[in-house]
Design a protein that fits this description.
By secondary structure, this protein is an all-beta fold. The protein has one helix and eleven strands; from the N terminus they run E-E-E-E-H-E-E-E-E-E-E-E. The strands form two sheets. It has a six-stranded antiparallel sheet with strand order 1-10-3-4-5-6. Strand 3 (about 35-45) and strand 4 form a beta hairpin. The chain is globular.
């Protein structure tokens, strides 16, 4: 696994823990597994999840982990093809009670998180907190990362 994370302190940058949108562009350059999987906070530094892009052999999308279930096992699981070399636009919205995500304006995740246990899948992905990107046996690229506050 290869990853990168925000090295500055989230609070010192004045970034919101909820009610924010995270947008970025990503592409898988080569390989057949997850690329640009994005780890992000949901309410606090110790409550992070990951939006998996292209996991479990190349086409799985979803949130890891909700109620101890990773993206391949929970209700956020979706399948979609990814073409090596193609850039994809991603948008993640983090609100107090729900998470949403889109790829190229197509809805991929829409899940209530009220009363749910949110955590990272066990393993090295925890090195990507509070905000980071990772790939597995794959070369990926990320650009144009932006965080904006959402109105309530």
């Amino acid at each position: 696994m290869t990853g990168a994370r925000l090295s500055a302190d989230w609070d010192s940058l004045g970034l919101p823990w909820t009610d924010y949108a995270l947008t970025f562009e990503a592409r898988r350059v080569e390989g057949q597994d997850f690329f640009a999987t994005c780890t992000f906070p949901v309410g606090s530094a110790d409550r992070c999840v990951s939006l998996v892009l292209g996991g479990w052999g190349g086409g799985l999308v979803g949130i890891s982990s909700i109620d101890h279930l990773d993206a391949s096992e929970n209700s956020t699981r979706a399948e979609r093809p990814f073409t090596n070399g193609q850039w994809y636009r991603l948008r993640i919205e983090v609100r107090e009670d729900d998470l949403q995500a889109w790829i190229d304006d197509a809805p991929m995740v829409n899940v209530s998180i009220k009363g749910r246990r949110l955590e990272l899948r066990s393993g090295d992905i925890d090195h990507c907190t509070p905000l980071g990107f990772a790939s597995w046996r794959t070369v990926g690229e990320v650009r144009s990362v932006k965080i904006t506050r959402l109105s309530r």
